[in-house]
């Protein structure tokens, strides 16, 4: 299965989750910019930080179609584990005809508060990855 892992992580939280997903799936992780545009991807993991998807993530999602990516698993990292960014990203992908198989919010550093994902969060990220893979088999 062709799997890609992308993230935008100015505070390091989404990167930590991407690393756990990478280890669980044996797929390579890469920062969204300057990532190459995906082609014929069975499952894309995409993570961001904050309660809204950043402009880079929105632009990337808007450029996709269901020939480039068939299925997506989305995660966000923010202090309150708010799911607003997930809903925003899922909405864009759904409009593009891309199947969103899983969404999960993890802890993350915010402007003035929050923490990096801990050991239990990284285990949860690995489980999230396996569940997303199982959802498309």
Keywords:
4 helices; Rossmann fold; 137 residues; 25% strand
Can you describe this structure?
- With 137 residues, the protein is of the alpha/beta class.
- Helix content is 37%, strand content 25%.
- Helix 1 (13-25) links the parallel strand 1 (3-7) and strand 2.
- Helix 1 (13-25) crosses helix 4 (119-136).
- It is globular, with a radius of gyration of 13 Å.
- The model has no long low-confidence stretch (mean pLDDT 93).
Strand runs, count: 5
In CATH's first tier, which class applies?
Answer: Alpha Beta
- Secondary-structure-based class equals alpha/beta
Estimate the helix proportion, in percent.
Answer: 25-40%
Secondary-structure element string: EHEEHEHEH
Tally of discrete structural domains: 1
Query: Could you report the average pLDDT, rounded to the nearest whole number?
Result: 93
The largest sheet is: 5 strands, parallel
């Amino acid at each position: 299965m062709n799997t890609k892992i992308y993230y935008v992580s100015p505070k390091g939280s989404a990167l930590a989750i991407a690393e756990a997903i990478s280890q669980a799936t044996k797929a390579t992780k890469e920062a969204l910019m300057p990532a190459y545009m995906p082609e014929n991807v069975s499952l894309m993991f995409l993570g961001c930080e904050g309660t809204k998807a950043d402009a880079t993530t929105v632009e990337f999602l808007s450029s996709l179609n269901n020939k480039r990516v068939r299925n997506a698993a989305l995660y966000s990292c923010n202090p309150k584990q708010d799911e607003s960014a997930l809903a925003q990203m899922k909405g864009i992908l759904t409009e593009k005809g891309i199947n969103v198989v899983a969404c999960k919010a993890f802890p993350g550093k915010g402007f003035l508060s929050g923490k990096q994902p801990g050991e239990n969060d990284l285990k949860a990220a690995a489980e999230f990855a396996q569940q997303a893979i199982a959802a498309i088999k």
